[in-house]
Specification:
452 residues; alpha/beta; Nuclear Transport Factor 2, Chain: A; Rossmann fold; eight-stranded mixed β-sheet; six-stranded antiparallel β-sheet; 14 strands
Amino acid sequence: MVHPPRHPRICFPILILVSVFVVCLMSPPVLPQGTPEDAALLTARQLREGRFSDIATSFSAEMAAALPAANLAQIWGNLVATAGPVRDVGNPSTVQLDSTSVVTVPLQFERGSFDLVITVTAGKTAGLFIRPAQTPPPPRTAAAYNDPAAYHDVEITIGAAPMTLPATLSLPKTAKKVAAVVLVHGSGPNDRNETIGANRPFQDLAEGLASRGIAVLRYEKRAKVYPQAFAARGRTFTVREEVIEDAVAAIALLRARAEIDPGKVVVIGHSLGATLAPRIAKENPAPAAIVMLAAAARPIPELLIEQTEYLAGLNGTPDATVKAQIATLKAEAERALAAKVGDTGEPILNVPPSYWADLNAYDPVATAATLTLPILALQGGRDYQVTSKDFERFQSSLSGRSNVTLTLLPTLNHIFIAGDGPSSPLEYAKPGHVDAAVIQAIAQFIDRLPGS
């Protein structure tokens, strides 16, 4: 799902890599009297009963501005629409970290288990989020296309102080200079594997392509390693700080390495990273080619509304409460779409106006149409986050160009794992692997690139 960076005080559930699975609402409202466990259980009960206004009465001014009760209701409504109603609230458990208490309350929904986690410091709520229940994941099994004997991993860093990022470079075992790719994440504080639920799509891509003789660089996203860089209230930031600067640094790093053919460094973007890939191709140093996996062609606020309506409709016709929540979201989306360069003021959908203004000035389809470098665009047919509507816009503008290959893969979801029936966020909890057809298509595309 595309969502602007989550950071210590704001978590933004917007399209492309897991919105309803992770809801971050961090700020310091005053707690009711009692222990941290009492406060957590009260919040769980209020959420279950839909008493969002009661929850909001304990919000600080900052929290109230960042997360109105209507927005909290919309977030919770999306989760209930997917997972069903809460059937049981478990016993809280607490971890004490100096003067901070982290309380976890198990919530059993009709179709899934989640944890409500509240952080309590000095008698106030310093954090509140909902995550999939933290059960031990099943042992990861490698995909059939992974050949560990064909490559080795090297731990490195990218970028410059004070914001260097841990990274892994998968290098084929050969004396020849090889083509290389940079993996550019979707939105949010992703790790180098772009881990989502039980799946690691970037690790799959790295293993599959390295097994085919292509080096792969994947790195921790800046929003994950340095969340404080986005946390200051009123700070202006854009996708340049969130995504582009580090992608460009990764390209430069690969081109300078002795093992890499500097003329065959490719950017593979997923979701937000795919949407920005044409823009990255305009940077210096530029990649030799770009691969767009689930690239959005339409404005992100528009996709957020579409996602929300889709999720709300999974269990039938939305009721009046859900419709009201969607109406509130649409009003905020209109504000985001109206943001212009130079706008300041309160966050819109939990990020500053500068973020939306930057995206509003960027047209990924028009930018891709100006490129002469090779482009591969892949789209999953079961993707509800970036849909065939977006793919069709790229097709309409780019079809017939000799430098462009566009492929729709009907059975794949947003993270390019195969499945059946309508896709939902719960699908990400099931372990799987990026489909072999994706590895094959990318490897063949890169193999056809001319060398330096």
